[in-house]
Amino acid sequence: xxxxxxxxxxxxxxxxxxxxxxxxxxxxxxxxxxxxxxxxxxxxxxxxxxxxxxxxxxxxxxxxxxxxxxxxxxxxxxxxxxxxxxxxxxxxxxxxxxxxxxxxxxxxxxxxxxxxxxxxxxxxxxxxxxxxxxxxxxxxxxxxxxxxxxxxxxxxxxxxxxxxxxxxxxxxxxxxxxxxxxxxxxxxxxxxxxxxxxxxxxxxxxxxxxxxxxxxxxxxxxxxxxxxxxxxxxxxxxxxxxxxxxxxxxxxxxxxxxxxxxxxxxxxxxxxxxxxxxxxxxxxxxxxxxxxxxxxxxxxxxxxxxxxxxxxxxxxxxxxxxxxxxxxxxxxxxxxxxxxxxxxxxxxxxxxxxxxxxxxxxxxxxxxxxxxxxxxxxxxxxxxxxxxxxxxxxxxxxxxxxxxxxxxxxxxxxxxxxxxxxxxxxxxxxxxxxxxxxxxxxxxxxxxxxxxxxxxxxxxxxxxxxxxxxxxxxxxxxxxxxxxxxxxxxxxxxxxxxxxxxxxxxxxxxxxxxxxxxxxxxxxxxxxxxxxxxxxxxxxxxxxxxxxxxxxxxxxxxxxxxxxxxxxxxxxxxxxxxxxxxxxxxxxxxxxxxxxxxxxxxxxxxxxxxxxxxxxxxxxxxxxxxxxxxxxxxxxxxxxxxxxxxxxxxxxxxxxxxxxxxxxxxxxxxxxxxxxxxxxxxxxxxxxxxxxxxxxxxxxxxxxxxxxxxxxxxxxxxxxxxxxxxxxxxxxxxxxxxxxxxxxxxxxxxxxxxxxxxxxxx
Length: 762
Known about the structure:
Number of helices: 29
Radius of gyration: 37 Å
C-alpha cells in the first residue's frame, strides 16, 4: 500500500473544500483509507492514522473505530506512539466504554516507567478519564508519585489525586500523609495543584476541613510572598505575580475560614493587604480583588474589612467592562441583607446603572435598588424608580411594578399579623359592632372570613402571616356561626406544601373530628390582665429595679405550666443536674410595665431523676413567691449598694454584659442584680434573650428585659433584673445563656460567671 498522507497535508486539503458536502466527501475517502490500513495491521503508519483520526473527531466526524488502535499505541515502547495513543484514549474513550478497562495494566506499567514523561502521560490519562474501578486499582501508584521529589511528576500526581477523590471519596485518607509537605514546595506548579487538591479534600470532608485549618498561617505566608515579591518573568501576568495561584489560595482560605473565628482572624491582615495593594487597571487584578471580596464576605471578617470589600465592589460599578459591572451588582445583591448600611453608600452609583444600555446590568440594578429601599430613603428611591419605570423597556415594566408592590406589602407584614390575631380573638365583637371609642363599622361574618381567606391565598403574604390567618379562622369557629365554611378552609390546607400550615390544619381538623367537645375551651379568648391601684405591699409591680405605680391582680391569673421543651432547653444551658433553672416569661402588658410580672421560682423542679427531665408542675401565680414576703410599703431597693463594684460578666463578639448590684431593704439575703447589655458592632442585635441558672442552694427570679433589641454602636442598652435568694450566704455562681440574631445569622453562646465580688453574697 502507498504511504498515507501526513496530517499536515490532510488539514491543508480539507481547508480547500468550498462546501460542506465537498469536505464530507474528503473525510469519508480518508476514513476508508484509514480503515484499510487498520485491517492490514500496519504498525508503521498507525500513529499517523490515529493522529488524522483525532483531527476528524475534532471536526465532529465519527472516529470510534479507532479506539482499539489507541490501546495498541499505548502498549508500544515508542514515546511518540504512546503520546498519540494516550491522547486518543482521552478523546475517544470514557468510562462508559468497557474497552477502557483493557488499558488499566498499561497505565500501571507506565506509572512505574523509568522516564518521567511516560509517567506524566499515564497520570494525565488517568486523571482525565479514569473510572472508579481504575482509580481503586491505581490509587497506590498515584500516592507514591505524590511523594516523589520530582516537581514535574508531583504536580501531575496531585491533579490525578483530585480525580481519584472525586471518583472514590473513601480513598481520600490515603493521600493525607502525602499532603504534609506539598505547601513547602518552591515550584509554583506544585503549589498550584497542591492547593487544588487541598480544596477538593476540604469541600468533601468536614474532618479534612478541621485538619487543614492548621495550614492557614502557611497559606497566608505564601500569599504574602506572592504580593510582596518583585518582578518574576516566569510567573508575571500583566504586572501581577502568578494571579492563578493567588486566586486558588484565596478560594481555599475562604473555605477554611468559613464559620471559624481563629482561622478568620489569622487571614484578616493578608486579605486587607491584597485588597489595598492589588493593581486594578488590568483585568487580572480585578479577578484577584473579586476573589478577595468573596473570601471576606464568607469568613467571619472584621466589620472594617467588610466595608472595604463592599467599597471594592462599588469601584467595580465604575469600570468600563460590562462583565465587571454585572459581577459587582450580583455580589452586592447577595450582601445587601447583611451589610445594608455599607451598600447604601453606593446607592447613587447603583441608581446610575439603571440607565445602562446592557439589559442584564439594568435588571440587576433594578433588583438591587429595590433591596436598598427603606423608610429613610423611600421618597428619593421611589422617585428614581418611577423615572426608570417611565422610560424602561416593556419587559421591565411588569417586574418593576411587582417589586414595588411586594416591597409595600412585605413592609407591613407585622401589622397584618397583629390585625389577624385581633380579629381571631375578638371577631364576634367586630361583627356585633361593639366599639367604645369610634363609630362602629357594620361587617358580616362572611366579610371577615373573606379578608382572612384572602390573606391565605395572597402571593404577598409571608408563611408567618398565613399561619396567623389560619389560626384566626380556627378561633372564629367558636365565635361565628359559619362553622361549615371554616371546616372547608381548614381541610384544604391539610395538604399544603407549607409544612407549618399543613401541621396546623391537620391538628385543627383533629379538633373538629375527634375533640369537638374540647374546641370551645381550647379556643377561648386569652384572659384579660386587670390592674388596680396599689395600696398594699404585695401589690407592687417591679420594672428593672424601679417601683411601678401599677399592680398585677394575681387572683384572676390562670396557672402557668412550664413546657417540657423549655426545661430541655435549659438543661442544655445548665449542663448538669445540680442547678435550678429559671425561665424568662412575659406578661402582655404595656411596655412601660414590662418586667413587672411576678414569677414563681420553680423551686420544685427536680433535675436529679435521670437524664431526661420532666415538665415542672403548674405554679399558681396567686401564691406570692418569697421575694414579696414581709415587704413593707417603703421602696423595695436601696440605691446601688455602697462598696459593691460592678463587674463584666461577658464580653465577646461585640456584646458586653455588665452586672450592677443592689440590696433589698427588708431581707439582706436577697441580692438584686441588674444586667446591662451593650453592643459595639455596626448592626443591631435582635431577638435578644438572656437566661440564667444557679445551684440548688440558691433561688433565682428573672424579670423581663427592657427590650429584645441591643442597639448598635453602644447607642443604648438592654437592662434586665435578676433577684437571687442566698440564705446560706454562699459564694454566688451562675451560668448564663445568650441568644440573639446578628446580621441575619442566629447566635447562641454559653458562659459561666464565677467572679462575683464577695460583697454581693456576704
